[in-house]
């Protein structure tokens, strides 16, 4: 590919076009699958993970303190709207019925944690940042955080997609998150 910055034009040769198509092949497949409502989720990781409200709260306090110290957040950041808001979200993510987990894979738990943290607005300020942090923190705890697939710009875009999504499209948004974080084994 040749980029002519002087004229602000990009000149693509035929070989560059083929290279672009090949490099982004997974994108074309994923967008086609999304249009059909059939996003592939990859192979789920079925392992026991522990997520407690106390551990998540402790992690979020670390984020809050870091951001406040750097003056990137106010004292209101991460203040729960009501007692038990985080515990309620953790309870939803980790719930089971008749001995069956509602979200059996680590990836499903992580995707729902992001969704609930962003959409349920448990804090007076910092819901998107806290939700994004909880998501990557949980994946890191489960040893599934793949920063080659989930870069900082991708996490930003994903969090905004969740925040701006229509609640009636929850399942499609969750599928999108799963598509991004799941192993393609």
Helix content: 55-70%
Euclidean distance between termini CA atoms: 31 Å
Radius of gyration: 19 Å
CATH architecture of the largest domain: Up-down Bundle
Mean pLDDT: 88
Strand fraction: 5-15%
SSE order: EEHHHHEEHHHH
Q: Strand order within the widest sheet?
A: 1-2
Number of strands: 4
Task: Give the total of domains.
Answer: 2
- Treating each run of at least 4 consecutive H or I residues as one helix, how many helices? 8
Largest sheet: 2 strands, antiparallel
In one word, what is the shape?
globular
Structural class by helix and strand composition:
mainly alpha
Task: Identify the CATH class of the largest domain.
Answer: Mainly Alpha
Q: Do you know the CATH topology of the largest domain?
A: Four Helix Bundle (Hemerythrin (Met), subunit A)
Low-confidence stretches: 1-8
Assigned CATH superfamily of the largest domain = Fic/DOC protein, Fido domain
